[in-house]
Amino acid sequence: MPNLCIIIFIFIGYVSALDTKVSQDAHSPRENYIMLVWHNRSYFYSAAALVFGIWLSLKVALKKKSFPESAGLQVHKAAKTKDRSDKDAEVHLSGVKIFYGSQTGTAKGFAKELSEEVKSLDIPAEVIDMKDYDPDDRLAEECGSKSVCVFLLATYTDGQPTESAEWFCKWLEEASTDFRYGKSYLKGLRYAVFGLGNSVYVGHYNTVGTNVDKWLWMLSAERIMTRGQGDCNVVKSRNGSIQADFQAWKAKFLSRIQALAKGGRKSCSGNCKNGGSCKNKKKDRQDEEEVIAHDNNSELDLMESSSDEDESALPDEKKSGSVVDMEDLGNIMSSVKKAKVRDEADGEMVKLSKLNGVKKVESEEGRREMITPALREALTKQGYKLIGSHSGVKLCRWTKSMLRGRGGCYKHTFYGIESHRCMETTPSLACANKCVFCWRHHTNPVGTEWRWKMDPAEKILEDALEKHQNMIRQFRGVPGVNPERYEEGLTVKHCALSLVGEPIMYPEINTFIRLLHRHHISSFLVTNAQFPEEIRGLVPVTQLYVSVDASTKDSLKKIDRPLFKDFWPRFLDSLKALGEKRQRTVYRLTLVKAWNVEEMQAYSELIAMGQPDFIEVKGVTYCGESSASSLTMANVPWHQEVVAFVQQLADMLPQYEVACEHEHSNCLLIAHTKFKVDGEWWTWIDYGRFQELVQAHEDSEGQQSFSALDYVAKTPSWALFGAHEQGFDPADTRFQRRNRSKDISGC
Fold this sequence. Notes:
ten-stranded mixed β-sheet, 22 strands
């Protein structure tokens, strides 16, 4: 375009020169043409200007168009870079706060374990005891902190929270229904719940964890995963033990918080690329349905246990206020029914029959062992010698004492057993009660029926005798041990089935007792009065005990904490069943000061019901501080207080008198007057005569019976109540420990 303009200007100059010359010469044709152009030069000027204007306009327009695009691209790149840096700097998970409510220390241990695992992922973690946390002042602060709150909660007596979590749960329950807080009070709080319980307690299994999950959900807190449930009942535990349940839940939780730390809201959106159903979502729903089926209120827990993944996958359902689509409800309820049928099948593994027979419904391989690895470790630390999968033996402190000539236990004083020849064992570590004074601090399993793998009675007795003898052999050459008694101690003559648990739960208990008698070993069996039919079907034993720890329904529930809902009718029926026995029977009363020592009249009525041969009254033994019990030394009565109680009780019983005393054990014996012959007490046992009678009974297939009076022996004077020896055998030497902790083990 510039070149064109130059040509035009040159042309104009040339035409001007010709115009001067035309005035002098005549015009030629060429000149005439040029003159024509010259005279019309204004048109050329206009055309040139027009072309130049168009060129300039196009150039400016093209430049403006290219500039916004390049500038916009640069701005977009800069903004994108800034957003990426901001995103990298944003914190999606500031930390994990682990709250625990524990009674026996299990939840506390889980909390510490989880904290270490979280910290190993470079995520801050803090362990908080609920008793030190005020939810009214601090819980709402967690809503905007970008942290995750984990609640590890144990369910205690009657479905109540533990003492440490009591205030937190009470506040949360009230807040969930208080309009002053509002339904969105905890909106933004992210949480997960793991409950600890025992499915044997059918009426309130894991209720604390379930309720806390529900109350948080009602206040609009956000679940990050489905509630976990740990089951102490190894039979119904999904993974075999509460520890294994926690490990399985912990793995899912750690995976979940890793995703949250990276900014992921959920592990799967539910919209798979192939258009099919999401496998992860199906798996999550199956896991959730199994948890729901494990609870008692399946429909309610379905609403309360929906995970974050499920909520995200069903936005329309959440907006409408529903949780489960109606078309999915049929599948879920079908899964619940299948789980219920499966649980019922598991529950039929072994039933206790009227005659203590074994009803096998499932193969032995399908059952779980009673002793879990964690339980085995705990019991081994306590000195148990475990036998098979559900039995144990332990050396009583009185056995050690009598080996050294330092006196025997109260059974030696009352009934003439040789303590150094007594084996303390049990064929069942499980129990149907969780007594406040349990000297094993509730480390043993609980249950209402036999559902575990079962070892044969022959194997249990063989291993028990071997392990007991090995423990006796450890005293060989020990200073102070009487050599004669050491040799005698290697041959077991008595068996106290009172170590721990409920021996009568063992389906082959009758076989075990018969084996004892064939080995000429006397049998002292203790039961907690919750299995009346098993008591009726029991073969003759040397002496049968029933623990009568309280005389009223309320106090029995408070002290024994039984698993059975109908514990009181079972208790009364057990006393009646005891009264039907012809062999020696005993009520075993444990006095707990401020708990059961004022129920004198009620005790006398229970004694009239069962008519036992003897009544042992013993002050409770304090076994040290335990988070599982509120028992303290203040609840232990003095010996003088036990004596006063026994004398008052005996005065209310027309056919009973105080017979013997063992001051060292804080124990007295009330005996039926039929054992007082010509003014002399015959409370001891003729063990040789008993073996003859029980053998005749077996040979006659039960036709030839015998009674308690058929194998009595005279009680020595030093064992009688009121003697200056106070029940200590003068053949031995009293040993007083000084400046040493008291050994409170043994029976």
